[in-house]
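agent> Task received from the user: take the single chain below, predict its 3D structure, and emit structure tokens. No templates, no multimer pairing.
agent> Plan: (1) validate residues, (2) run structure prediction, (3) serialize to tokens, (4) report one or two observations.
agent> Step 1 OK, no nonstandard residues flagged.
tool_call: predict_structure(input=
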Amino acid sequence: MLLGTKVLVAFSLFFNQPVPPYSDYDDSSGYIQTDEGIQIHYDNKAMDGGIDYDPELTELSNLDNCYEKEIRTSGAKGMTETHATVPITFQTQLYNNYCGPAAVKMLLSGIGISSNQSTIATAIGTDASGTSFGNSLLQQVNSMASSAGITFYLVWHSSTNTATLKTNFVSAIEGGNPVLINTDESDYFRFNGHATHNIKYHYGCVNGFTNSGEYFRYNDPASGFSGWTDIPQAAYYSKTVISGACGGRGYIW
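)
tool_result: status=success, residues=253
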């Protein structure tokens, strides 16, 4: 998304049937090779269509270093970059109901705005039940983002609109902006560790893509909360998993 124009991306309704493995990306050993030459473990046991880092193959810091290199483009006018990332400051949510403030803080850090979770929680109306997704949240995010000259937009997402989600996410990230997502996860579309801790409704921040938008880099504020070390700070998930997890909810981009 270009500076001055940020769009919020709506989340997808989850599907009723499991998603088959992506045979065009998955080899017999269960690993895929990204456009950056990074080998990633394809984790269909954890979440049907998701992929995890394999710590024996690549550390998260190594992946981040890759994105500090010059972005490779197709060389053709109008073609998308094959991979890109927006630097953000990762946040672990302070409290059980603070996934919203933590995710918004990550979003704002990506556009150069510093704040803290408590201030954000007050601004976006976080209460004991969490943070409501909708126009009120959008208005407050835009108010906080105004000093950067950026306007975000909100999309209520249906899982059938995966192609639109992909286009919007890639556009935002190529323009230098992360994306805030709000999820309603089903058994078929769950992020790593969420089933163990019964996380269903959640906020997170997407700040990168690879394979021309087939996979997106999701930053999870639940990582590290209450000693939850089984939830990664960041991992790549397929566009179908991201879309399915957002089903019935939405995103801000």
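agent> Step 4: summary for the user.
The first strand starts at residue 8 and ends at 10.
agent> Done.
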